[in-house]
Amino acid sequence: MTTHFFRITGAKNSGKTTLIVKLTEELIGRGYRVGTMKHSSHDHEFDRSGSDSHHHSVAGSSATIILSPNKLVCHTKRPPSEELFAIIRQAYHDIDIVLCEGFARFPVAPQPTPMIECVAAGEDPLFTGDPDLVAVVADKTLPVDVPLFPHSATTELATWLEKTFHLAPDTNTGSP
Description:
Blueprint: E1 4-10, H1 16-29, E2 34-38, H2 52-58, E3 63-67, E4 72-76, H3 81-91, E5 97-101, E6 115-118, E7 133-137, E8 148-149, H4 154-164
Parallel strand pairs: 1-5, 1-6, 2-5, 6-7, 7-8
Antiparallel strand pairs: 3-4
Helix pairs in contact: 1-4
């Protein structure tokens, strides 16, 4: 199974999250298994102060996994890129498409990853010269050399992604 990664980039408040939510729903409706990933330029405290797992971290644990009946969360320091790529591949091993919010200048895989840029009203595109830019989502005509989709054209964008990148849902879910 091949997992396809797409970066959804753009300035703050350009519609990245909205696009990812709508595109996720559209692709799931077409039978794809979709994962998402969010990049942040600043560190977050993912553990509540005073929680058991926070106590583990404060004590010096290099990695803490929280396992509940339906979820798994792992807190660890960020590894070097090659190890990070291996973790990302493992985390999404049974996913058809991963939509990555942000990651404009941060790689999500060792190979180039197609980028779709969201552009807010009154703004200009930021990444027109980027060789990974494959489409722009904006509600105005822009001088770009890639396909341009309105924010409301999620269905058309999903169809274009399928055709351009030869996507098809993997019907082998690995379940018995």
